[in-house]
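ok so I'm stuck.
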Amino acid sequence: MKKMNYVLELTLEQIEALITYYEPLAESVFVENTMAAFEGNHVNISIYPSKKVMFQGKKAAQHYDYWIEQFDLGETQAEKKAKKEDTPNKDAFYEPSIGSDESGSGDYFGPLCVAAVYVSANDKEFLSKFPIKDSKQMEDSTILETVPEIIKRIPYSLMVLQNGQYNQMIDKGYNLNALKAYLHAQAHKKISDKVGKKGPIVVDQFVQPTKYYEYLKDLEDVPQVQTFMTKAEDHYISVALASMIARYAFLNHLTKLSKALKLKLQKGASPMVDEQAAHIIKTHGERQLKEVAKVHFANTLKAKALIK
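replied:
not stuck anymore, here's the structure
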């Protein structure tokens, strides 16, 4: 029987937690082209610079599902298999819906942006003229060119959590998923105020539904989400558009921050980002870094180490 490989794409913060978990439980080994690797207890774990983590071995699926649950990533392996067998209905792609998605959550520099979009039954002909899909599958140049034309007609709402406030909320004990839940809910409220309460509301799932509403327990009049779905942008054009608009907003804000610092800030959380963070600390101080970066990422510690 062919052995299955199970792969997760994590943030650097999540990878740090995973490494801390396995260090006392498994043997650290060398695997070419990896950041770290472990063997033990019927599982091999390889962590790559692309932030992908591969689980192999007899208990790979169990370890994979454990981290799915720990990080609220949405679905276990069994659920993914069921979704894979459920072929998207392309006719339903253009059905009226309010969809939401975010951008910037895995980027050290720049804000966290969440967009919600309403697509009506009359928008299919207009939208079919544009290349619309998950923003992670698109060139940034295409997004910057396409989105301005789309938002001239399609109703949307946008929530932008700037870095200064983002860091304050993290310091108060909020985690990234809690912040995303709040921004999604607020975006749903704003778009509903614009177009009326026209559902269903669809969220590109980043956390289990019960946890989503738990994060929002202190928020009044939380809009009810009809559909939580991973890869929702493949099923609902409203979510794909929300992904593009959130990315468009993120790119524009990153450009503004870059101009203010006279430094072209890098996207993502690579070693180049560490070097830029170190430069900002040396040139402008840690206070300024908090205004442009998500300082709870591991990049901050790495940047400080570079200064020493």
